[in-house]
Amino acid sequence: MSKINYTLMCDFYELTMVNGYFQSEMRDQICYFDVYYRTIPDQGGYAIFCGLEQVIEYIENLHFTEEDIEYLRSKNVFNEEFLEFLKNYKFTGDIYSVREGTPVFPNAPMMTIRAKAIEAQFIETYVLATINHQSLIATKTSRIVKAAGDIPVSEFGARRAHGAEAATLGARAAYIAGAVASSNTLADRRYQVPAIGTMAHSWVQMFPTELDAFVTYCKLYPDSALLLVDTYNVIKSGVPNAIKAFNQVLVPKGKRPVGIRLDSGDIAYQSKVARQMLDEAGFPDCKIFASNSLDEYLIRDLIFQGAKIDAFGVGERLITAKSSPVFDGVYKLVATEINGEVIPKIKVSENVGKITTPHFKKLYRLYNRETNKAEADLLTVYDEEIDDTKPLEIFDPIATWKRKTLTNFRKEELLIPIFLNGKKVYNSPSIEEIRKYCKEQLDTLWDEVRRLEFPHKYYVDLSQKLWDIKYELLNQQK
After folding, report:
1. What is the pLDDT of residue 2?
2. Looking at the 3D structure of the chain, how many domains does it have?
3. Residue 44: helix, strand or coil by DSSP?
């Protein structure tokens, strides 16, 4: 990824604004932008933050080539001094972010950028495109993994993804959020997401008979024989021929089959019959894998119906987040800085959900010390400190009469420095470490928050100081 120059993967208006800042007195103006999202996909209870590693690579690689500058010159829009400035352009500001794999909630900053306007404004599109996509796929995967319970889920959607990068980065996000593997080989090569796979229906069709196809495959891969049994008829030919191939090839070698895969039809019924046939044939250890346009609801129903399935492969409904395909992350100015003083800024809208929360902020997660469950998130002004040795009253920033006093709690500050003065100060963890962290953090959420339908609302509250600042700015707009 670091070899690909994504610098011009930006909205054109970012360039016109940066050019404008450059030619005005705002050239060196420090400003603050928050990255957050407004609504949870699938009307769920939480989302999973993902994509930080790619944002880091982008920031470190940010530069304009001679070809880039010549292209911009051809647009006859940009000041020549500005184009010369771009030859040595780099990011010199600060970026704070939550860790990848963190459950995140609406209107709480997932990332804050403090930099000169000519730097902070410019990176908006890539940051949003990256975080929105991977967070969307991670969130969808988390729901599917939740529905599957102890049954492992693999990501099988590369051929239905919105392009090669979406397929590969989507597989990365899915693995972080709990999928155990992917069909995408590049995701394994690039991001160490375990790649798995056996055969397609075309393999079976290429041979004179289904049995020939199965026997050949077992001979070639005696230690990993997993056969796709629904090319013709699962019960009448697929499973019987799989059993014959196992007996002809594997048993004489002292090998055991890995499993069979069902990819169409009534999977609940077929899995029950297939399980009985395999058990009676002496293969109780032969696993049954299921795929075919699955999602969290179909998986939940299959389990409820008693389907005999040992693993799920989930394709297009995961990799495209088909049921809720937009993660509405936004990039909003929340403050400027003059002579070291932070000046809060607010965006007002008739749509209440689009009113921003101003100022440079801290984001705290508050945990119950006895249960280790997250009670709420709390946004404060950057210079506030939360004392978790004393009782703390929190309140809903909209329905302010809804209040709660926390006594036995601990705090954790979620926004940590990634870049300071343009220098990376954060050591990116491995994908296995991110995956482990994600699971641990999900375990801190109450089951009611993680429900697939009608989840309990998790609160993101404002400190009294921040609430006062926000509503003072709102009152000034009257």
Report:
1. 52
2. 1
3. coil
Q: What percent of the chain has pLDDT over 90?
A: 96
CATH number (domain holding residue 436) = 3.20.140.10
CA dist 72 to 24, 63, 80, 87, Å? 19, 14, 10, 12
* Predicted confidence (pLDDT) at residue 330 exceeds the cutoff of 60: yes
Phi then psi for 103, rounded to 5 degrees?
-65, 130
Q: Mean pLDDT, the chain, as a whole number?
A: 96
pLDDT at 351: 87
Q: Which two tokens stand for residue 302?
A: 């299959």
Residue 338 and residue 183 in contact, taking contact as beta carbons nearer than 8 Å: no
d(CA 449, CA 459): 10
* Distance from C-alpha of 216 to C-alpha of 241, rounded to nearest angstrom: 12
Residue entry with tokens 């798995």? 196
CB 366 within 8 A of CB 392: yes
Q: Are 335 and 346 in contact (CB under 8 A)?
A: no
Give the 3-state secondary structure of residue 189.
helix
Cα separation, 389 vs 411, in Å, equals 10
Distance CA 403, CA 395 (A): 4
pTM value? 0.96
Q: Which two tokens stand for residue 45?
A: 């209870």
CA distance to 26, 28, 180, 258, per residue, from 83 (Å):
17, 16, 47, 60
DSSP collapsed to 3 states, 83-142:
HHHHHHCCCCCEEEECCCCCEECCCCCCEEEEEEHHHHCCCHHHHHHHHHHHHHHHHHHH
The neighbouring-strand residues paired with 368 are 409
Burial class (CB in 10 A: 0-12, 13-18, 19+), 160: middle
Q: 44, 52, 61: which is closest to 1 by C-alpha?
A: 61
**pLDDT tier at 27 (50, 70, 90 boundaries)?**
confident
Pairing state between β 181-182 and 226-228: unpaired
Query: Does any domain span residue 190?
Result: no
Q: Is residue 258 part of a domain?
A: no
Q: How far apart are CA 247 and CA 52, in angstroms?
A: 49
Maximum Cα–Cα distance across the chain: 84
In a domain, 454, yes or no: yes
CB 122 within 8 A of CB 15: yes
Whole domain around residue 127: which residue ranges?
12-137+325-476
Average pLDDT over residues 24-35: 94
pLDDT (tens digit, 9 = 90+) per residue, 267-312?
Answer: 999 999 999 999 999 999 999 999 989 999 999 999 999 999 999 9
Tell me, yes or no, whether 369 lies in a domain.
yes
State how far the Cα of 306 lies from the Cα of 26, in Å rounded to an integer: 64
Helix, strand, coil percent content, the chain, rounded in steps of 5: 40, 20, 40
